[in-house]
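Interim report to the steering committee. The following record documents the input for Aldehyde dehydrogenase 1 (501 residues).
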Amino acid sequence: MIGESNGKLVVKKMIPEIKFTKLFINGEFVDSISGKTFETIDPRTEEVIAKVAEGSEEDIDLAVKAAREAFDNGPWPRFSGAQRRKIMMKLADLIDENTEELAALDAIDGGKLFHHGKIIDIPGAAETFRFYAGAADKIHGDTLKMSTDYQAYTLLEPVGVVGHIIPWNFPTQMFAMKVAPALAAGCTMIVKPAEQTPLSALYYAHLTKLAGIPNGVVNVVNGYGQVAGAALTSHMDVDKVCFTGSTKVGRLVMQAAAMSNLKQVTLELGGKSPIIIFDDAELDRAVHLALIGNLYNKGEICAAGSRVFVQEGIYEAFLKKLEEKVKSWVVGDPFDPETQQGPQIEKKQYNKILSYIEQGKKEGATLLTGGKPSGKGGYYIEPTIFTDVKDDMIIAKDEIFGPVMSILKFKTIDEVIRRANATTYGLVAGVITNNLNTANTVSRSIRAGSIWINCYFVFDRDTPFGGYKMSGYGRDMGMEGLSKYLHVKTVATPIYNTPWL
């Protein structure tokens, strides 16, 4: 339920002043060349928060020129790693100092839980910058012993100008996980935030200026994907594009990169991930992980475990306890500390989720709970659970990106491995069992980039994240997240009169 009166009291107190709505190019906030703006909407109320400058192809070109100049002739790529580390550490401190305001911006712009933002998203972003700041002075190549009368060594050099296209579901964390390693590597960049959630990216741009990052190194251009995003991915002076979003758009990004200058591409795309619960699983833990795996961030997360496979021995007990637990799940205003699920991002996504729920009913799945809008306003949807789901149903195949769980029954380990892998996606999987042999077998058999055993959503700056198959390729986070922003150059020289090769 939505706590209307309490929620409104909290909201009035927490709404931040909107300070930055323009484009950030070459260290300055500027209007778009066309003068156009677009509205960013509060999904809690369906009201306009602010009008934001709308970037076009011309604005992207200006930002790329600024980034190109900063890379080719500016100090950032030529700083020592220690110099970059010092400035990035200052940026992390500035993020910590502005935690409440940044969390509030993501709450009103993206419907994200304010209290989660304060304790998870914003501090996590600061720590991501610290993690990669610590790596900035540890970027080293290798000395190679060759088989002939030559010696060689490798240099790790920044890729160049990078285009980051980030999604709306985690605007803060995606900004940090893309920008931080690129900065540590010595790259310059253009960030194109999702048109639904531009406000926090602009605030981070402001903080980069305060931290002392030179002009042109970080640029932020708001705009629509089909205009600003397309211009960025096809630009001949961009060396690499990193995109997180849908598989459909990921195809377009690859196509644009191939048709322009064959720029490098890293993609983190969709998922239809399985959570596999075996008979020997601890029931309360299994129910908790299934709920979190589907309802966290209102289901708007690529790694959602939206196919929950439950072994037949505990299937009925699992359903009973799950139905009982979901009754206490609180849907409401993200500023209310009791809220567990805020509003969906926008009306288009809200309607899409509701249409999938109707599709599930038509296909013959049993609606255990939910299935309707929640409250009297805003884009709120009840937690929705379907049982008796078959593998060929649309709700079991498509990425819904909302609070919708499909539960499927299985008998054997071989069967569930086959069914779990029968998808075009391969982002993550959850395995819940007390049998070590089962955990080992399944984790090595599932074709996915991350396997979480007796846990779920275990993201960390130390661990690389990315997918198999149509969930994309390349990795964010970990040291792999830094290496994708570096070229490897081999330098060889002849050696004479050496006692050994």
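The longest helix spans residues 114-135. The committee is asked to note this result when reviewing the revised timeline.
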